[in-house]
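Intended use. Records such as the Probable butyrate kinase entry shown here are meant for training and evaluating sequence-to-structure methods. They are not intended to support clinical decisions.
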Amino acid sequence: MPARILILNPGSTSTKIAVFQDEKQVLAETIQHTNEINNFNWVMEQVNYRRELIVHALKENMFCMTTLTAICARGGMIPLCPAGAFEINKTMVDYIYSVKKAAHVANIGCVIAYDMAEALNIPAYIYDPVSVDELQPVARISGMPELRRVCRGHALNTRAMARKCAQERLGKHFSECTFIVVHLGSGTSVRLIKNGITIDANSDDDGCISLERSGNVAAVPLIQLCFSGQYTEAEMLNKIRGNGGLKAYLGTSNLCKIETIIKNGDDNAKLYYEALAYTTAKDVGAMAAVVAGDIDRIILTGGAANSKMLTDLISKRISFIAPVELMPGEFEMQAMAAGTLRVLNGEEKAHCFTL
């Protein structure tokens, strides 16, 4: 009998839900949230609000929840962990509620999945959460003992695209290949995945310039700016993540709008745009050096990888390293469903979350 898996993916202004029957998607809906969401002081206060909307959406689609085999939610900010599936348990839920500063919108999905699954007496999972960190020891050294390098962000989509590329384009198992995967979005991450493990990575706040992230900046001037008295801590963090990168220079992070400005002859916009591609290519080159250039494929993925202008600029600088595969978009729902199905079929074993 085919497995029926409910997928939950909460975002800042919407909640995506889907139902998969084995690998086939049979239901999909995006629930847009109104200004009512702004009335909540803490992200976890939205749990009941979003759960009611999810249940209503399933009923509207005439879906019977008792037919579900499992539920999978996008994993949020839990302690650094290995890749793969984690069965959601009370320890995870209690942790999520205990760490207010590390609250991530995806954590809402973990709690909703746990509550719904418990009522149905079925398992609930997260898969490749934001906190996946499998860096090799040498990649953790930052040069400052107080600051160990860690890996966060885009694990779900980058690993899914590497797995897909291995199977469909190379005819190999994921664990037999070496990939550099570049996730292009409002932030950019560059990951080196060898034999199924992300052994090195630049996260979206410590590498290249992106649409809304400053990327690496010189340390001394940054420290001086922090202590200049001009900005609060929150304002400085916003300069690095949220209002950095091209948004800081051009006042927008809308890629289509930026490309239109460039086509209309704005040379400054063109320079900043080229800097984004230039620094991204440099990060790819750095990752290639880690494995002496022994790369099967370089994958460009994420929403911004839909831009031919951007991918062309990046590809021309990195194609000498390895063939470049364009795999634009985000496939988080499919990746969660496929991962959960592998667990249900006994192809993978879910981790047990402990502290």
